[in-house]
Amino acid sequence: MSHSQRYRSDPAAIRALVRDTEVHKDIFIDPELFQLEMERLFTRTWIYVGHDSQIPKPGDFFTTTVGDQAVVMVRHTDQSVRVLINRCAHKGVQLVTEPQGNTGRFFRCPYHAWTFKTDGSLLGVPLRKGYENTGFDDTEAKLGMPEVKAVHNHRGFVFCRLAPEGESFEEFFGESLSTLDNMVDRSPEGRLEVAGGVYRYIHRCNWKMLVDNQTDTCHPMVAHESSAGTAVKVWEEAPEGTPKPMAVELFAPFMSPYDFYENMGIRVWQNGHGHTGVTNSIHAAYSGIEGYVEQMEEAYGKERAHQILNDVRHNTCYYPNIMVKGPVQTLRIFKPLAADRTLVESWTFRLVGAPDKLLERTIMYNRLINAPTSVVGHDDLEVYERGQAGLNTRYRDWVNVARLYEPGEEERRNYVTNGTSEGLMRSEYRAWARYMTLEEGEAETPLAASGASSPSGRESQSDRRAVQ
Amino acid sequence: MSAPNDNDLIDFVYHEARMLDERRYEEWLDLYAEDAYYWMPLAPGQEDPLLHASLLYEDKLLLRVRVERLLGQRTYSQQPHSRGHRLLQRPWIDREHPESDPAAGRHIVRTSFHYVETRGDDQTLYAGWATHHLVWQDRLRIRLKRVDLVNCDAAFANIQLFP
Hints:
- The complex is a heterodimer of chains A (468) and B (163).
- Chain A has helices at 11-15, 26-29, 31-44, 169-173, 177-185, 207-214, 220-223, 225-236, 246-251, 258-264, 292-300, 302-309, 356-369, 375-391, 423-436, and strands at residues 22-24, 47-51, 60-66, 69-75, 81-85, 100-102, 106-108, 115-117, 122-124, 147-148, 150-154, 157-161, 192-203, 266-268, 274-276, 316-318, 322-325, 330-338, 341-351, 398-400, 415-417.
- Chain A is an alpha+beta fold.
- In chain B, 20% of the residues lie in helices and 38% in strands.
- Chain B contains three helices and seven strands.
- Chain B starts with 5 loop residues before the first helix and ends in a 14-residue tail after the last strand.
């Protein structure tokens, strides 16, 4: 790729793209900034990789990307979860291409049969004697598959930071982990499993438009009037006494008026993490599912069970690129492909031990709201793509995020404010500028070559691994 | 009207495609039984529409929402409108299907298709198999239409109409 080099060596120019209440259009449309996002933002922050229920047994693997890096998440023989760059040390061939599977005790390259243990270390090379006296032990290939050393498994959710040095997992996420905790706690056994398949769909827009949208509470009654509003209208024509279908119960709250969204509140943590729906949300009024509350009370005691279930957070953003809905057990990841191209994956989870009806509702929600065939999603995508097109015009340069700006808010963390504030978006863009411009040496280096077999005597940084 | 013969069943499938191509949605909906579902699985060979995600699994209420939305003034993703075109291979009656029971008025008809959806300058081709579960209730109606796209698990952009 040949891009302009306006920003690479000019942190001040990058910082100037994010003002208190405006962000410059370049952050959505400029290919050089996209490239720098991959090298900096998606390297220095903790990125969601997958869920450990996807790889229950040793040798189980799941292929995905972290920023623009192809990785494989694998269960090693010692049960730990490893994240390896999906590349043969020999000629660079991707070792696994299935979305998931079991590789046994090692990965075997389909080209020349080099093999690698599930911690990435080089296991075998055919005709090994051909490498005698060649200095092979000093080559990069001897290091095997690069292992991402900074991996953290938080109650099943596996995150990694490509940069070997940088902010710790706890520092980066702070109090925001409470949303993941609440989702897990909603299982009477305190355990989640990925279930029900995954929607994957392509948006021809910048990934940040999707992230920005997750805590935009002033759009549902406008953009989704055509879907949710029509659902309400069609339902009102049903004969009196017809039981309210689950689908209508899921659609209808999208049409809540502005004051509903204002009053439900928004919480801004730090680093662009936050959530809508503090005291109330569009997920608050779903019908009970038979037997579930009783299971929860038995598992946690009455008080704690209701504390868990009454936490009805709407959308939680884990910056940079996932959004989690605890009360409906969904997780969406926005995978950046190019400045104007994003792959969305929408995952669902089973609350282990809970009635199937909950998973059925989760799956229906995902189908109605988050699929390439969703009538709600259609209008979201339409506005993102119109946004991408509009930002490519000249004569205006800035995107406005001024709504309910409070001077000095950049110093605050873990605060609650009006639910229609764009304060969380502003926090996201400030985080963007920060991770894009950290000083040289602050986690600037690419993924460190790794492996216990490191010829140069580099220490394996296994102390950084917090895998359970 | 007497019970349908094979040609009636085949003609019915062509007729349904025509109603969709011509966007005659009220007449199209009328071809569906009150308890009908329109199912487009997300996985090849998928058996469960409830505990596994599907591209579509819509009862008549949701189909009506979809149809009414297409005509709404504030349906931004339909400005401009999408258009669809179906090219069907000749439908055939699947008498081996476990749900087939002509004596009880239940018929299964399978059809290979190519479907093109277009909007503005974009045109996308989808291919697959449709399985119509038809019931005879004084007239033929659809109880289930299952649409298996050959690439149902691919990453799509918007699919706005009815493949």
